[in-house]
Inverse folding.
C-alpha cells in the first residue's frame, strides 16, 4: 500500500495533537511550548542533539513520566481526541493503546513465550489458543519468529542483543496498540540488526503509527515519513522527511543534519 | 640491562595484578574453613563416641580392692604419674560416677565376661555382676562385693559389653542414637533423648519464620516501592538498620514486657478470666518466644528486601508499566520473583542467627524440662501458650547448670551437633529454594 505523502499543513485526521506543551522537571523547564500534529499510520522521527527533550516528549505520550517525582506539565496532548495529560485518564488502558520500545532492550527474565504475552496475561487473557496465536503473530511481525520458534519456552535472556530488541518490539505489538513509541531502538545494535529493525518499522507502518527517536540521520531519512527537529526543548522544524533532509527551512536544522553541529 | 628492566616489570606486574590480595583473600577463606572443620571435628569427636558401648574393665589395686568401670581417659598428671579415669557408675553406692586411679597402684586389669551394664531410671548406670533374678527384682553385686537389689522396672537396658562382638555393639550404638532423637530426657536431662528439645527448636524456628518473613518482606516492599522518599523514610531506614545491632537480650526483655505482660496479660483478661490469677498467655510460651525472635530477624529481612528490590534495573519496571501493567502487577509478577533470591539470602542469615539465640528465650518461655509438648493430640492440638524446650538452652542447662559436669559432657557435644545439624538442614532447604529462584529469574542466565 502506497501512502499519500502530503505537505505538513495538510495532515488530515492526525492521531496525536500536541498543543502548547510545557514540561518542568522541578524548577527546570525541559519542553517549551511544543505544538505539532502526528499523522496516523506513518513513521514520525524525532531528531535533535542530546538533551534536547526527545525522550521527555515521547514519554509524555504514554505517561511514562508519571514515574518521575516533581514533574509538571502544561498544555494539551490529545490522542484520538482524548486528553492524555488528564489526571483522571485511565493510564493502564491508555498504555495498551500506546506501546513503547526502549533504547536498552529490557526483556523480562522469563521465557520468550511469556515475554510476548506479558501484556495479554496481565489483561487477564487465559485462553491458550489466543495466546499461542498472539505469540506467533507478534513474533512473525517482529521478524524474529524463524529464529526463536524452536525455543519459545527457553529463557529470553539467552537471545542476542538484536534478538532481544526485536522480542521487545514483539512484546509491544502483542497487545495490538495503535501507536508504538521507539526511543533509539537501534542504538545498541550492529548494522545488520539495525537493518532488520528498520525493515520491520517500514513493515509495521501499514498498521501502526510509529514515533521514533533517533540520533542516526540516515536512519531517520530511511524509515520516516515526517521528521521533527528539536533543540533545547523547543520544536524547531517539523516537516516531511524528504523536505527536512533536502531543503530545511531553518539554518539550525541544516547544520545539525549535515553534521556541522550537534 | 634488558633483564633488569624485565624483572622490574614483572615485579610491577605482580603488584599491579593484585596477586597479594588474591593470596590474602584465599588465606582468609582457608583460615575460616580450618576453624569450621576444627569446631565440627571437636564436636563430633567428643559427642559421637560417647554412645559406643565400651568394655568393662576390672582393675585390681595394690590395697586389695577392686574397681569395675569403663576407662574414659589416660593422662599423665602434674607429678608425672600416669593416671586412668574410670567411669565407675553406681552413684547410689559410690557417690561419684568418675574416679581417677594412678597407674602404679593398679596390679592388673581384666575384662570379666559376666560384667553387666545396667541403664537405670535413677542414679545413672550400674556396673556389676548379676547374682539372681527374683520376680520383679534382680540382685546384683558390685566390684567390691556389695549387694544391690534393683527393681526390674527401673532398668531400661542391660547388656554384657565384654561378651558383645562388633555387630552387637554397632546395633546397640544405633539404638542409642535413635533413642537420642526420639526419646524424652531422663535424670534431669543428663541421660535419655532430646526429642522435646529438637521438636521445640524446630517448631520455634518455623513459627518465627511464618511470623517474621511476611512482615519483613511487606515492610521492605512498602519502604522501597510505595513510601514517598523523605526524612521520615530515611529515619525509619536508619532505625531498621540499627535494630539489627541491638543485643538479643534486649529483645528478650522487650518480649517479656510487651508480648507476655502486655499482650498475654490482655488476652488473659479477655478470654481466660476464670483461670486468673494463674496466667494462661500471660506467661512465657513458645508463641511469645517465636515472636520475640521474629522481631530479631525482621530488620534483616526488611533490609535485604529493600536491597534486592533496589537492585532490579529500572528498565524492567518501565517495560512492565509500558505493557499496561499496574504497579501491583509489576511487583507480584516481576519484581518479587526477581528479588526473591536476595530476600531469601537475608532471611537465611537471619534464620541461622535466630536458631542459635538462647538469651532472649530464657525470659520468654524456654524451660529445662517441659512436661508437655506445644503440639499434641489433646484439643485444640496447638498449645502455643505452652513452655518448651530448646537445644540451645539445653546446652547451657546441662553444660553449666548440672551438678554432674563430667557425666553430661558427651551430651553437651551431641546437643551442639544436633543444633548445628538442624540449622544446616533448615538453611540448606532455604538455600536450595533460593538457587532455584536464582536460576529461574536471574538476568544473566544463558
Ligand atoms: N528525571 C529527570 N529529572 C530532571 N531532569 C531531567 C530528567 N530527565 C531528563 N532531564 C533533563 O531534561 C532534558 C531533556 O532530557 P531528555 O532525556 O528528554 O533528552 P534527549 O533528547 O532524550 O537526549 P538523548 O538524546 O541524550 O537521549 C535534559 O536537559 C535532561 O537533563
Ligand atoms: Mg533520550
Amino acid at each position: 500500500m502506497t501512502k499519500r505523502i502530503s505537505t505538513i499543513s495538510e495532515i488530515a485526521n492526525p492521531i496525536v495533537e500536541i498543543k502548547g506543551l510545557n514540561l518542568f522537571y522541578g524548577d527546570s523547564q525541559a519542553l517549551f511550548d511544543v505544538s505539532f500534529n502526528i499523522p496516523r499510520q506513518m513513521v514520525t522521527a524525532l531528531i535533535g542533539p542530546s538533551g534536547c527533550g526527545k525522550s521527555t516528549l515521547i514519554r509524555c505520550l504514554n505517561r511514562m513520566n508519571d514515574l518521575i517525582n516533581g514533574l509538571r506539565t502544561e498544555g494539551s496532548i490529545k490522542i484520538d481526541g482524548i486528553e492524555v495529560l488528564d489526571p483522571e485518564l485511565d493510564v493502564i488502558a491508555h498504555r495498551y493503546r500506546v506501546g513503547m520500545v526502549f533504547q536498552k532492550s529490557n526483556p523480562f527474565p522469563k521465557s520468550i513465550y511469556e515475554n510476548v504475552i506479558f501484556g495479554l496475561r496481565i489483561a487477564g487473557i487465559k485462553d491458550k489458543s489466543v495466546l499461542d496465536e498472539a505469540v506467533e503473530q507478534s513474533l512473525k511481525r517482529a521478524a524474529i519468529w524463524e529464529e526463536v520458534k524452536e525455543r519459545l519456552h527457553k529463557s529470553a535472556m539467552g537471545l542476542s542483543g538484536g534478538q532481544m530488541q526485536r522480542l521487545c518490539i514483539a512484546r509491544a505489538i502483542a497487545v495490538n496498540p495503535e501507536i508504538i513509541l521507539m526511543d533509539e531502538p537501534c542504538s545498541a545494535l550492529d548494522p545488520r540488526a539495525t537493518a532488520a529493525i528498520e525493515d520491520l518499522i517500514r513493515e509495521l507502518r501499514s498498521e501502526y503509527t510509529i514515533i521514533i527517536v533517533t540520533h542516526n540521520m540516515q536512519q531517520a531519512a530511511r524509515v520516516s515519513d515526517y521528521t521533527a527537529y528539536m533543540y533545547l526543548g523547543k520544536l524547531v522544524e517539523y516537516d516531511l522527511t524528504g523536505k527536512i533532509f533536502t531543503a530545511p527551512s531553518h539554518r539550525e536544522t541544516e547544520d545539525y543534519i549535515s553534521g556541522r553541529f550537534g | 640491562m634488558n633483564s633488569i628492566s624485565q624483572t622490574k616489570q614483572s615485579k610491577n606486574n605482580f603488584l599491579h595484578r593484585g596477586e597479594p590480595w588474591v593470596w590474602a583473600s584465599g588465606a582468609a577463606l582457608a583460615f575460616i574453613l580450618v576453624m569450621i572443620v576444627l569446631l565440627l571435628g571437636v564436636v563430633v569427636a567428643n559427642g559421637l563416641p560417647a554412645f559406643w558401648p565400651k568394655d568393662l574393665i576390672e582393675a585390681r589395686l595394690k590395697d586389695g580392692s577392686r574397681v569395675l568401670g569403663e576407662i574414659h581417659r589416660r593422662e599423665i598428671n602434674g607429678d608425672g604419674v600416669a593416671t586412668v579415669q574410670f567411669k565407675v557408675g553406681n552413684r547410689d553406692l559410690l557417690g561419684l560416677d568418675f574416679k581417677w586411679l594412678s597407674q602404679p597402684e593398679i596390679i592388673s586389669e581384666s575384662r570379666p565376661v559376666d560384667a553387666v551394664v545396667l541403664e537405670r531410671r535413677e542414679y545413672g548406670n550400674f556396673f556389676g555382676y548379676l547374682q539372681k533374678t527374683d520376680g520383679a527384682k534382680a540382685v546384683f553385686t558390685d566390684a567390691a562385693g556389695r549387694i544391690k537389689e534393683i527393681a526390674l522396672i527401673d532398668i531400661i537396658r542391660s547388656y554384657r559389653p565384654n561378651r558383645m562382638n562388633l555387630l552387637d555393639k554397632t546395633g546397640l550404638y544405633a539404638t542409642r542414637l535413635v533413642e537420642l532423637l526420639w526419646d524424652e530426657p531422663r535424670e534431669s536431662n543428663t541421660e535419655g533423648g532430646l526429642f522435646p528439645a529438637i521438636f521445640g527448636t524446630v517448631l520455634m524456628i518455623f513459627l518465627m519464620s511464618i511470623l517474621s518473613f511476611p512482615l519483613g518482606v511487606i515492610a521492605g516492599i512498602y519502604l522501597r516501592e510505595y513510601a514517598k522518599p523523605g526524612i521520615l523514610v530515611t529515619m525509619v531506614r536508619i532505625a531498621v538498620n540499627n535494630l539489627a545491632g541491638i543485643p538479643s537480650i534486649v529483645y528478650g526483655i522487650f518480649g517479656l514486657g510487651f508480648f507476655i505482660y502486655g499482650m498475654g496479660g490482655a488476652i488473659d483478661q479477655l478470654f481466660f478470666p476464670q483461670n486468673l490469677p494463674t496466667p494462661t498467655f500471660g506467661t512465657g510460651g513458645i508463641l511469645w518466644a517465636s515472636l520475640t525472635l521474629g522481631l530479631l530477624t525482621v530488620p534483616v529481612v526488611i533490609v535485604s528486601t529493600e536491597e534486592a528490590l533496589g537492585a532490579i534495573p529500572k528498565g524492567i519496571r518501565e517495560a512492565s508499566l509500558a505493557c499496561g501493567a499496574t504497579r501491583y502487577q509489576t511487583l507480584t509478577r516481576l519484581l518479587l520473583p526477581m528479588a526473591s533470591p536476595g530476600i531469601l539470602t537475608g532471611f537465611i542469615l537471619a534464620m541461622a542467627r535466630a536458631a542459635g539465640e538462647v538469651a532472649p528465650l530464657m525470659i520468654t518461655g524456654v524451660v529445662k524440662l517441659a512436661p508437655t509438648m506445644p503440639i499434641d493430640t489433646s484439643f485444640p492440638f496447638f498449645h502455643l501458650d505452652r513452655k518448651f524446650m530448646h537445644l540451645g538452652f539445653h546446652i547451657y542447662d546441662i553444660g553449666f547448670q548440672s551438678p554432674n559436669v563430667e557425666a553430661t559432657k558427651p551430651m553437651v557435644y551431641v546437643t551442639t551437633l544436633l543444633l548445628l545439624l538442624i540449622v544446616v538442614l533448615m538453611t540448606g532447604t532455604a538455600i536450595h529454594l533460593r538457587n532455584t529462584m536464582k536460576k529461574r529469574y536471574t538476568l544473566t542466565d544463558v
In short: Confidence is low (pLDDT under 50) at residues 1-6 of chain A. Chain A touches chain B at residues 62, 64, 67, 69, 92-93, 95-96, 99-100, 102, 104, 106-109, 118-119, 121-123, 155, 157-158, 168, 171-172, 175 (CB under 8 Å). Residues 16-258 of chain A form a domain with the Rossmann fold fold (CATH 3.40.50.300). The CA atoms of residues 3 and 42 of chain A lie 8 Å apart.
